[in-house]
Amino acid sequence: MLLITGGRGQLGRALTALAPEARGLVHTDLDITDADAVRKLVNPGDILINCAAYTAVDRAESDEAAAFAVNATGPGVLARVCAERGARLIHVSTDYVFPGTASRPYEPDDPVGPTTVYGRSKLAGEQAILEFAPDARIVRTAWVYTGVGTDFVATMRRLERERDIISVVNDQIGSPTYAPDLAAALLELAAKPAVDGPGRILHATNAGQASWFDLAQAVFAGLGADPDRVRPCGTEDFPRPAPRPAYSVLSGNSWAAAGLSPLRHWKRALNDALAAISDYPGPP
User: Fold this and answer.
1) Would you tell me how many other CB atoms lie within 10 Å of the CB of residue 254?
2) Is the separation of the CB atoms in 138 and 91 below 8 Å?
């Protein structure tokens, strides 16, 4: 059985859309911090993809206990139970475990150094999994979107309708990742045999890199709007409780080295994301 925690999140929904036979679990179905509850659901031979996460990066700064419960304690419980029950665990982590000061794409074995509560909680979850589940895989990703709801691409779609000009930071660089592409990658990983030892942490994002400004301009252009309506600004113009990494591009080398299909370029993925949205107006 394929089990997916965080089943109502954007990645969880993308996974269950591609794997309708999977069981998507939400918090009311399973408290991942409750070992007894997890034991009742996980059976030998199951594969569990953990998409459950506390992702409110700014709120985590003042809600540390809740962030660590979901992002650290929960994954540790899942790891222990999966190891006990003979189930496989694939855990989704984040670029925020890195300090964000690099000048080249991060590899899985590069030094970590999170600067936020969210990043520290996710790193603690990774460490618990590595300790308790020898055949688990950790997949770090970044800048995940669907274009629907409240993610960055969806917000840019809304602002394109509501404002003549918008300002977006151009000094934060990352790896935009379309949730259905990431979901397909995780399912490919789930279909491969478990691996113990090196290669337990992988990076999976759409190829290429962009600033938030680049991504916003690409959204406008994809909607048939003038991309020059998006103006660049600096991080200092949008102060947030949690500092954002200046550079958090993740290298795809580990993914390819594991014999997995490289994810396509983020621009191609974005075009398909916009085309898939029901109210997409098409080219001008």
Assistant:
1) 20
2) yes
Q: Tell me how far apart the alpha carbons of residues 8 and 164 are, in angstroms, rounded to a whole number.
A: 33
Give CA–CA dist 1/283, Å, rounded.
42
> What are 159-200's pLDDT values in tens digits?
999 999 999 999 999 999 999 999 999 999 999 876 555 589
Question: Helix, strand or coil for residue 248?
Answer: coil
Q: Spell out the residues 6+ positions from residue 182 whose beta carbon is closer than 8 angstroms to its own.
A: 11, 14, 141, 144, 204, 205, 263
In a domain, 233, yes or no: no
What residue numbers bound the domain in which 74 lies? 2-145+177-207+248-264
Q: Would the pTM count as exceeding 0.90?
A: yes
Distances from the Cα of 206 to the Cα of 210, 232, 267, angstroms: 11, 23, 9
From the candidates 54, 96, 106, 118, which is the catalytic residue? 118
pLDDT tens digits for 215-244? 999 999 999 999 999 999 999 998 999 999
118 is catalytic: yes
H/E stretch holding 74 reads: helix 74-85
